Amino acid sequence: MGRSPCCEKVGLKKGPWTPEEDQKLLAYIEEHGHGSWRALPAKAGLQRCGKSCRLRWINYLRPDIKRGKFSLQEEQTIIQLHALLGNRWSAIATHLPKRTDNEIKNYWNTHLKKRLTKMGIDPVTHKPKTDALGSASGNPRDAANLSHMAQWESARLEAEARLVRESKLISNPPQNQLAGASSSSVPQLTNNAVVAAPATRPQCLDVLKAWQGVVTGLFTFNSDNLQSPTSTLNFMENTLAISSVNGFNDNFLGNSSIPCEAGDIVKVDSSANEWKCLEKSNQIPELNRERLDNSMGLHEMAYSSEGAWFQDSYRAENMMECYSDIMVCDSGDHLQSSSMAAPGQNLNGTNYASTFEENKNYWNTILNLVNASPSDSPVF
DNA sequence: AAGCCAGACAACCGCTTCGAT
DNA sequence: GATCGAAGCGGTTGTCTGGCT
Question: PANTHER family from the xrefs (predicted)?
Answer without folding.
Answer: MYB FAMILY TRANSCRIPTION FACTOR (PTHR10641), MYB TRANSCRIPTION FACTOR MIXTA-LIKE PROTEIN (PTHR10641:SF1347)
